[in-house]
């Protein structure tokens, strides 16, 4: 009697999935350690303990590998932001200022946690159209999530949606600038991540909850 044919393909698929994850993790590490120049097919294969041919079969070439790494990374990044900034989590906070501060903190903390890899893709996006396009989609989705998370917060502006959009742009621009340019590009005054986070929270809370023009 032959063995049921479903077991072996399932095991093979699981092994293939693990192998792909190993390759992506190897790519993450190389990009974090040495940037785009460190990402070669040979280096990823060596780091993952796999044959070079397996990378070409899965991803086609270095370009395909890079885009696959970005796609996997941004998917995980989005999931982390969604968890930190879930509407049901922020919705139970009665104080609007606390809810806004939590949303700002969620974005800032996620960028800080993945600073090295984000720097690679943010800088690469300035000269690589496919990377820029993917990054733009992810950033725009982050904007939508931010707005959704604070949708029921009483925003003191005639157009709350526009105010939330600007608030997100302010947060994103500030932390993306920190990731790509570091702490001291525009000032020699120290501003570590925890202080940057706190100042951003104060600024965004004030902007969203205070009537424009002080009225």
Largest sheet: none
What is the 3D shape? elongated
Number of strands: 0
Helical fraction equals: over 70%
Average pLDDT metric: 90
Classification by helices and strands: mainly alpha
CATH topology of the largest domain: Tetracycline Repressor, domain 2
Q: What is the assembly state of the chains in this entry?
A: single chain
CATH class of the largest domain: Mainly Alpha
How far apart the termini lie comes to 83 Å
Instruction: Please count the helical segments.
Output: 10
**What's the gyration radius in Å?**
21 Å
Beta-strand percentage? Answer: under 5%
SSE pattern, N- to C-terminal: HHHHHHHHHH
The CATH architecture of the largest domain comes to Orthogonal Bundle
Model regions low in confidence, pLDDT < 50 over at least 5 residues: 1-6
The domain count comes to: 2
Characterization of the model:
- This protein is mostly helical.
- It has two domains: 1-60, Arc Repressor Mutant, subunit A (Orthogonal Bundle); 68-214, Tetracycline Repressor, domain 2 (Orthogonal Bundle).
- It has ten helices and no strands.
- Helix 1 crosses helix 4 (62-84).
- The longest helix is centred in the first third of the chain and has 28 residues, at 7-34.
- Mean pLDDT is 90; it is low at 1-6.
